[in-house]
Design a protein that fits this description.
The complex is a heterodimer.
Chain A lengths: L1 H17 L11 H5 L7 E18 L14 E15 L5 E15 L14 E14 L5 E11 L2 E14 L3 E15 L16 E4 L5 E4 L11 E18 L2 E14 L7 E3 L5 E3 L5 E15 L3 E12 L4 E8 L2 E4 L2 E12 L27 E12 L10 E13 L4 E11 L1
Chain B lengths: L1 H19 L26 H10 L18
The chains are: A mainly beta, B mainly alpha.
Chain lengths: 423, 74
């Protein structure tokens, strides 16, 4: 009888404890899980600021400005700031407005030889503002639009894009983007290859007010450098998938179509008979890059970030890119990330080295970016992001990264980058 | 040619098999996946590196960077 009572008591206590799992500290109770979450209106506020600056220097001996034989010395200082504003409404929609501004200043020794005497300017500045707006609902579906501008002395670009993303199953996400770049290339030719202007007599025109002025004629059109359009249309798809607690991967595919003036007007090409012309490339190019990213967290301190890309286009270039970065967490807030990237490509159908193009070639370039080449890029990055910010300020993250780049074309370069995040 | 096709088929089969072996990971189990170093997009600090690589090489795209247009480059 005693055993029976104790058994019944034990079963009763077990029954009581069975429901205690619903009130585990840190997790919502059964009642809370059934009740809908409340959303509140939040006005637009600055959530995050990112600043990225880089210093780049390069050297080489195959400048396209001098036909594939000349200095490729370049220095570039890039600065960019991005502001992210966020708001939300009582329906649980999140609105994000991202604005950015970038300013690059470069000096290129080869630019001096746009003039045959080497008297051209070697410096230039590019300014590129951007704005992007997106809306995300409670299910994580995102719709967004963006507008971009880039302006430098000899090149102007205006772009629009639209993007869409939604979650798939448990841990999957599919996103897509379409973009259009509408560019204008200013036709600045090498000094000895500037087309001879057509000389015309001025025409006298009398306006409705009775004022008479001259229109056209030698001199008026000579002062304006003509431009030629270049348009680029891109469709991108990215599929990301969580595989397990330590592993996730994504596949990236772009389809790119370019139309218009795809050469650069200040690039020279020398032929076997010692004559020289401006680079001439087809007015259409279609590209397909396909990328794969796989990230794996090994143990508690080591992460493997790997990337592979296959590229092909209708100019004859086939390329493979493979990179591996291994962030090592020295502390939960400080990591050191050595990295290595290998790249190899076949030559374009239209490339030939200095003075090796035949005069009968329809399309021709001596730009070594289109030659058969391999490259190696390696370096190290440091990332520091303590909780509460660095020095108890709004500076939430600091990242410094150095890389050294070499190509089999004898081009080599170094880049140092700094990224600051404020929250 | 045949070996290349075979290699591509092996890679695709491995990838599909990996995706099919995905396990359900609850939000409270994603502490490692949510680590800033595990993000599947490129780091912001790499942005200018992607630019110079697209200028100096014939290939671009499929990495969150330039695919063409926006500059006097490839």
């Amino acid at each position: 009888m005693k055993k029976l009572c104790l058994t019944v008591l034990g079963l009763y206590l077990l029954l009581l404890n069975a429901f205690s799992q619903s009130v585990v500290k840190g997790y919502p109770s059964v009642a809370e899980r059934k009740a809908p979450m409340e959303y509140i209106d939040k006005p637009l506020h600055l959530e995050e600021t990112n600043i990225v600056s880089s210093y780049y220097n390069q050297n080489g001996n195959h400048s396209a400005v001098t036909g594939g034989n000349g200095t490729e010395k370049v220095t570039d200082i890039s600065n960019g700031i991005e502001l992210k504003f966020v708001s939300s409404d009582f329906l649980g929609h999140k609105y994000t407005l991202t604005t950015g501004l970038g300013i690059d200043h470069h000096t290129a020794a080869s630019s001096a030889y746009v003039s045959k005497t080497g008297a051209s300017s070697t410096g230039g500045t590019r300014v590129y503002p951007s704005v992007n707006y997106s809306v995300e609902n409670k299910k994580g579906t995102v719709v967004g639009f963006g507008a971009y501008y880039s302006g430098e002395y000899n090149y102007h670009s205006f772009a629009l894009d639209a993007n869409y993303a939604h979650k798939i199953g448990m841990g999957g996400e599919l996103s897509s983007k379409v973009s259009a770049y509408m560019d204008k290339v200013k036709l600045i030719y090498p000094s000895e290859l500037i087309p001879t202007p057509v000389v015309t007599s001025p025409t006298a025109i009398t306006s409705a007010s009775g004022r008479t002025y001259n229109s056209g004629g030698q001199g008026e059109e000579n002062n304006r450098t003509p431009s030629s359009p270049r348009n680029t249309y891109t469709g991108s798809v990215v599929y990301s998938q969580i595989i397990n607690k330590n592993l996730q991967a994504s596949v990236l595919v772009d389809l790119v179509a370019q139309h218009g003036y795809l050469s650069l007007p200040f690039h020279r090409v020398y032929f076997t008979d010692a004559s020289v012309q401006v680079e001439n490339l087809p007015n259409q190019r279609n590209k397909i890059p396909i990328g794969l990213r796989v990230n794996y967290f090994l143990g508690d301190n080591i992460i493997f970030r790997s990337y592979y890309r296959y590229f092909t286009d209708d100019w004859g270039i086939k390329a493979h890119t493979a990179s591996l970065e291994i962030p090592v967490k020295i502390t939960p807030f400080f990591s050191v990330s050595p990295f290595y990237r290998y790249y190899t490509q076949t030559a374009s159908n239209y490339f030939a080295p200095y003075a090796q193009h035949a005069t009968a070639d329809k399309y021709y370039t001596s730009n070594y970016s289109y030659s058969a080449l391999n490259s190696n890029y390696f370096g190290v990055g440091f990332h520091y992001a303590p909780p509460g910010g660095i020095g108890k300020t709004n500076l939430s993250s600091l990242e410094v990264r150095y890389g050294h780049y070499t190509q089999t074309t004898d081009l080599n370069s170094n880049i140092v980058s700094l990224a600051l995040q404020f929250k | 040619m045949r070996n290349q096709l075979l290699m591509k088929a092996v890679v695709v089969i491995c990838f599909i098999t990996t995706l099919n072996s995905c396990t359900t990971v609850r939000s409270y189990q994603r502490n490692k996946l949510n680590d800033s170093e595990m993000g599947l997009s490129g780091r912001k600090v790499e942005k200018n590196e992607l630019n110079f690589q697209s200028y100096r090489e014939g290939a671009s795209g499929a990495n969150g960077g330039k695919t063409g247009g926006g500059c006097g480059c490839n």
